[in-house]
């Protein structure tokens, strides 16, 4: 057998036709920008409503986005028949657990309709229940419906699902409904009525990532589903490949273009330390641990000694089954394991079982000996098989990278213990990272587009769903909000007239997007996208990390502006692929500027927002318990605010839009 | 020590990690399905039909495994984690140590 690695040697002619400057036009009732989880569900929702739908995706809709390589946890499906907690109560708990800084509108939509979306997934051919009776009799299985649950086996609002092929099925459904899918279009800008920022959104522009062709999308309603910014504080392509937890193509293009168009954003000041973005991290879900996909796996030390678990009251859990039950006096718990998505510890009321918090000290005292291992061998059979086989296997990026690769290398969950690098220094959950190694969008709920109960932004005609809207996250959230926004946008589109796209706006955008192509000559003094990305991260690390103050933030703004003036005009791209990456870095710069503006606007520290201002050290003063909004207004930034719960009554607002 | 005197070229360093996937030349049909499904578009088709795809941008790989999952020929393409990221484990009964290869 000969194994080869074909890497590029020498320069050959670009394999695709080059169409720089050529324009292709598309017209529809609804255009969906970004064909990830939210995008395909939005297209389906709009098409079912009878709208003519075009979907533009930067890569390949069949697999693109954070959910294209799978999903194992269908979160917060309080509408499923086995849930002991209703949508309203669960949504409120999730919001409270984030100190109020979670999007109540989209969280409620998720809690009230995630299961409905899952049933539709099942109709498309997705496996959502244990039809093969693999887990018959397991405590996490409902015998009547054959649904499997995770975390809190009493409360039953998180389902375990077989999601590794869901994206392929969703694309098929889009096709069946007549959605016109256009892959390999990196959307670059929004078109507005009369070409003016701040007015109604009537279309978008994009560049083909293989041919460089310019694409124009004219529509009566525009739905953005392009996820969120990444690579703002950390960037490396040399250690483990591009260091992002979500796909590297998710860089906040949607944030940047909506900002340029004058839409309002909130919570852009929140960022957090994150091992997710570390260039030294391991394959996701591919090391021994006890959270998320691996909850609640036995962890043992080098001598096989088990690390104890405690409940939210700090009581040691002696009965194994109690790792999956609420504690004495607790109604239900959220996640458990010391959740990775809540950098703030969250409320004790909703805290799940986790490993002892003082492991590091006890290791120092000699009670435990590193390294530690996840010991699946000592887990009950059904728990071992569900973690290694279902969760690891269906979870995004685990089927081939972990389950298949490790099994082929000989890993056997019945005999072997997988090392946990997170606990090497006894850090309990994840390797601590420096205050400068931060992330905006890799992890947790973060800042994004302000939307109302129609999931429409502050610009008429511009809608959003999924990870791109403020204070939201999760696959089931993207599905539920996508499905919902598709319908709302189609209804909106129905009442709109035909608009004329402004030629000047289109010409300006063409000049902007093709600029890096003109800079290649001899490469003398040219600026590569990678070098620019790394330099932007450096500015953010130095002046917009932890802690912050007015001086530092002023310097951040100054240096970002300086780079925009000095190095950006030298940005080089010599083929359509590199042009896409170069334009991405320009949008990363725009997102950085948005972040700095938002940080300057919040003049108070906050634990929930991971926001530490030396010049305003008081933590979470009540007058600052509100959302700070930012919007571009000409050359100025307009700062505003929203009350902490601007959404009003969940039930009536939601029901009136069904 | 005898080192064969081949022509020495002035080659630049390659990006690393530079081998996110490994093709098996005997099995790969060069159908380019992996090129189509790669969500980071790191490959380009070979200049000649039926030849192995070219890994043009190895350092942009997301290690999602979709290309492997969607390849119609079992064993034609394998994911190759960066050496730095190859996880280790221990066999409980014997205490032997292993790792991803
Ligand atoms: C490895 C992994 C595992 C996960 N597991 C779970 C889980 O088990 N349960 C759970 O609830 N959540 C999980 N998540 C999170 C979940 O996948 C995301 O919350 C969800 O996919 C968000 O959907 P989205 O549509 O907003 O973004 P995405 O699904 O990421 O889609 C964004 C899309 O926009 C496209 N795009 C970006 N920019 C442009 C542009 N300029 N032009 C055109 N298109 C563009 C992208 O290519 C992509 O297709 C996981 C995430 C990862 C990374
Ligand atoms: S690796 Fe598989 S999918 Fe890719 S070209 Fe070869 S046979 Fe086709
Ligand atoms: S692992 Fe994913 S990103 Fe890497 S080459 Fe395969 S499909 Fe592309």
The portion of residues forming beta strands of chain B comes to 15-25%
User: Could you say what the CATH topology of the domain at 21-84 in chain B is called?
Assistant: Alpha-Beta Plaits
Helix content of chain B: under 10%
Order the strands across the largest sheet of chain B as they lie in space: 1-4
- Work out the number of β strands of chain B: 6
Q: What is the architecture of the domain at 21-84 in chain B at the second tier of CATH?
A: 2-Layer Sandwich
Radius of gyration of chain B: 17 Å
Q: What's the CATH class label of the domain at 21-84 in chain B?
A: Alpha Beta
Q: Please write the string of helix (H) and strand (E) elements of chain B.
A: EHEEHEEE
Helix count, DSSP H or I runs of 4 or more residues of chain B: 2
The shape of chain A, in one word, is globular
Q: Helicity level of chain A, as a percent range? A: 25-40%
Summarize the structure.
By secondary structure, chain A is of the alpha+beta class. Chain A has 15 helices and 22 strands.
């Amino acid at each position: 057998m000969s194994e080869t690695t074909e890497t590029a040697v020498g320069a050959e002619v670009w394999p695709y036709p080059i169409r720089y400057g050529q324009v292709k036009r598309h017209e529809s009732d609804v255009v969906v920008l970004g064909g990830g989880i939210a995008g395909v569900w939005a297209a389906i929702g709009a098409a079912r409503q009878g709208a003519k739908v075009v979907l533009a995706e930067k890569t390949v809709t069949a697999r693109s986005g954070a959910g294209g390589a799978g999903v194992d946890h269908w979160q917060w499906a309080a509408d499923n028949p086995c849930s002991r907690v209703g949508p309203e109560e669960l949504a409120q708990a999730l919001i409270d657990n984030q100190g109020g800084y979670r999007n109540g509108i989209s969280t409620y939509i998720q809690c009230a309709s995630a299961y409905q979306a899952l049933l539709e997934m099942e109709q498309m051919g997705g496996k959502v229940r244990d039809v093969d009776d693999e887990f018959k009799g397991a405590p996490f299985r409902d015998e009547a419906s054959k649904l499997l649950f995770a975390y809190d086996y009493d409360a039953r609002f998180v389902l375990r699902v077989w999601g590794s092929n869901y994206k392929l099925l969703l694309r098929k459904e889009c096709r069946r409904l007549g959605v016109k899918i256009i892959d390999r279009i990196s959307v670059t800008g929004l078109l507005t009525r009369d070409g003016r920022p701040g007015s109604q959104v009537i279309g978008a522009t994009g560049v083909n990532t293989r041919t460089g062709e310019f694409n124009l999308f004219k529509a009566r309603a525009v739905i953005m589903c392009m996820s969120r910014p990444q690579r703002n504080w950390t960037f490396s392509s040399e250690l483990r490949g591009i260091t992002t937890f979500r796909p590297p193509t998710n860089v906040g293009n949607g944030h940047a273009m909506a900002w340029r168009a004058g839409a309002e954003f909130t919570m852009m000041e929140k960022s957090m330390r994150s091992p997710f973005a570390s260039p030294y991290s391991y394959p996701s879900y591919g090391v021994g641990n006890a959270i998320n996909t691996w909850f609640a796996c036995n962890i043992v030390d080098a001598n096989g000694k088990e690390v104890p678990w405690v409940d939210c009251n700090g009581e040691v859990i002696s009965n194994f089954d109690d790792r999956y039950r609420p504690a004495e006096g607790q109604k239900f718990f959220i996640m458990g394991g010391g959740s990775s998505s809540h950098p703030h510890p969250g409320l004790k009321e909703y805290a799940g079982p986790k490993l002892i918090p003082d492991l590091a000290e006890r290791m120092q005292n000699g009670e435990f000996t590193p390294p530690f291992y996840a010991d699946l061998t000592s887990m009950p059979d059904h728990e071992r098989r569900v973690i290694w086989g279902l969760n690891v296997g269906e979870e995004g990026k685990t089927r081939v990278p972990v389950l298949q690769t490790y099994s082929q290398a000989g890993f056997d969950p019945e005999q072997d213990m997988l090392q946990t690098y997170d606990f090497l220094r006894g850090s309990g959950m994840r390797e601590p990272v420096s205050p400068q190694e931060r992330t905006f969008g890799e992890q947790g709920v973060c800042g994004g587009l302000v939307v109302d109960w129609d999931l429409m932004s502050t610009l008429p005609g511009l809608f959003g769903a999924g990870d791109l809207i403020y204070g939201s996250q999760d696959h089931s959230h993207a599905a539920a909000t996508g499905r919902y926004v598709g319908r709302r946008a189609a209804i909106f589109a129905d009442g709109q007239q035909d608009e004329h796209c402004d030629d000047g706006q289109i010409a300006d955008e063409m000049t902007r997007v093709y600029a890096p192509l003109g800079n290649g000559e001899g490469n003398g003094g040219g600026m590569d996208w990678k070098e620019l990305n790394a330099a932007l991260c450096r500015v953010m690390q130095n002046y917009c990390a932890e802690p912050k103050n007015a001086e530092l933030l002023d310097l951040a703004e100054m240096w970002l502006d300086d780079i925009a003036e000095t190095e950006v005009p030298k940005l080089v791209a010599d083929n359509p692929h590199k042009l896409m990456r170069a334009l991405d870095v320009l949008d990363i710069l725009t997102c950085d500027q948005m972040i700095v503006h938002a940080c300057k606007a919040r003049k108070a520290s906050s634990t929930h927002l991971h926001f530490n201002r030396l010049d305003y050290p008081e933590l979470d003063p009540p007058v600052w318990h509100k959302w700070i909004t930012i919007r571009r207004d000409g050359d100025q930034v307009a700062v505003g605010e929203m009350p902490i719960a601007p959404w009003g009554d969940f039930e009536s607002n939601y029901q009136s839009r069904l | 020590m005898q080192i064969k005197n081949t022509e020495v070229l002035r080659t630049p360093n390659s990006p690393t990690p530079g081998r996110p996937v490994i093709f098996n030349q005997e099995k790969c049909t060069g159908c380019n399905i992996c090129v189509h499904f790669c969500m980071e578009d790191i490959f380009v088709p070979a200049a000649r039909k039926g030849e192995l795809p070219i890994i043009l941008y190895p350092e942009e790989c997301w290690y999602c495994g979709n290309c492997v999952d969607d390849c119609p020929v079992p064993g034609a393409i394998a994911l190759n984690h960066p050496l730095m990221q190859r996880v280790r484990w221990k066999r409980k009964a014997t205490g032997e140590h292993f790792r991803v290869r």
